[in-house]
Design goal:
The chain is α+β, with helices and mostly antiparallel strands. About 20% of the residues lie in helices and about 30% in strands. The chain has a 6-stranded antiparallel β-sheet, with helices on one face.
């Protein structure tokens, strides 16, 4: 089951406090960006975040899962928990580097 357009809009609405929130469809699912940094992966109407040392204390009770079969385990973010979402996205935005620019094909 792929993520619905209404669910990805709901996820982005939960991030209203953050500037420059956008999403991009990738392989039938979505990546959510904050300030051009990829912070959330949304697959099958579930929000996933990378397992990082900086999130360990915050996400210690969170479920874990794989966004797709070949993926590493990720934390599953309860996007409806506003305080947890805000805290997790603040950490992710701070520690996630900007993606490297893609080289144009000649």
């Amino acid at each position: 089951m792929a993520t619905s357009e209404s669910y990805i809009r709901f996820v982005c609405d939960q991030l209203h406090e953050f500037p420059a929130v956008r999403y991009r469809k990738m392989f039938g699912e979505y990546m959510v960006y904050v300030n051009d940094k990829p912070v959330l992966l949304v697959c099958d109407n579930t929000v996933f975040v990378k397992i990082l040392p900086e999130l360990e204390m915050l996400m210690q009770t969170a479920e874990r899962g794989r966004p797709y079969p070949e993926a590493k385990n990720h934390y599953i973010l309860d996007i409806e928990n506003a305080e947890l979402t805000r805290s997790a996205v603040e950490v992710l935005e701070r520690v996630t580097p900007l993606p490297k620019p893609r080289k144009k094909k000649e």
